Amino acid sequence: MQFIDISQYDHEKMQLARPIYDRMRRVLLAAGRTIHPKILDRLIEMGISTLIVEDAESEGITVEEMLDMPTWMDIIAVVQKAYELAEKKQELNLVELQKAVATMIKEVNIRKVIYLIPSSYVTDQLKDYAHSVNVALLSIQMAKKLSYNQLQLRDLALGALLHDIGKVFTKEESEHPKKGFEWIRTKREISLLSAHIAYQHHELLNGKGYPRGLSGDEILEYPQICAVANVYERLISSRETLPHEAMEIIMTKHEVEYKGKIIEAFINSVPSYLPGTKVLLSNDKRAIIVGIKASLHRPVIRYLDNDEEIDLAANPSLIIKEILVK
Length: 326
Fold this sequence. Notes:
Layout: E1 2-5, E2 15-16, E3 20-21, E4 27-29, H1 37-45, E5 50-54, H2 69-87, H3 94-109, H4 127-145, H5 150-161, H6 176-184, H7 192-200, H8 221-236, H9 243-251, H10 260-267, E6 278-281, E7 286-291, E8 300-303, E9 309-311, E10 320-323
Antiparallel strand pairs: 1-5, 2-5, 3-4, 6-7, 6-10, 7-8, 8-9
């Protein structure tokens, strides 16, 4: 299997490796199906820009580190409900959110690493909720590297799920952190630290963030974790930035916008390349990423001409020279 931009889909050579869902989270196209060109146009109109497919070259590649699709969609539904209740100023579905948080922590804990399903995989109506789920998953993964305990993981994950909830109260980007904080802090069952994730996730070490222009140690650690996860998820869900490029962008922010320990936890949590990515190596041979073995950033590859697998971690002189988009 492999992740592709929808513009790369080849009806003759590819089939879906994972189902596609509509805005009501119902299966629109099942795994194993091909996509008719007219339906492909409709998916584009719906805002779907990423597909998970399989072709002859990516056959047999599985991504066990990725959350299973039904679980991901169920958590998206819980977050959507929370945002809709907040907009109506009704009681929060806190028990459902707590169960979702427990599920995410469990799913992250049983994996060495977790691959995100980009929010560009879902329709426009679900993107914001999928984004929040992905930010929470990556925040948990980073916090594992920082040796957070279970209580800390729960508070972090809940705050990350709700980090953008202020957007239901205002259309002004600069105002949503404060609006979200003010709403969350009225919920006695939610830690004030979780509320501060909403308030501070756009603050930067150099004081150039918002809404308050905090700097340095004025910014709490939980929001910094969420902030890095937020930036990364936005980047990989755009149609312009590949995962390794997103990582490089975030690395440039070390001790400038985010604390070094947070950036290092991020680097030690996120693989540079997704399985199924086709690459050109320094020996000018074409290959496909199979998965991770010894190193997050030096994956196992399979040559496309003879199916030989090589662990780049064990072959330091062999490097990835180029990503082959098609």
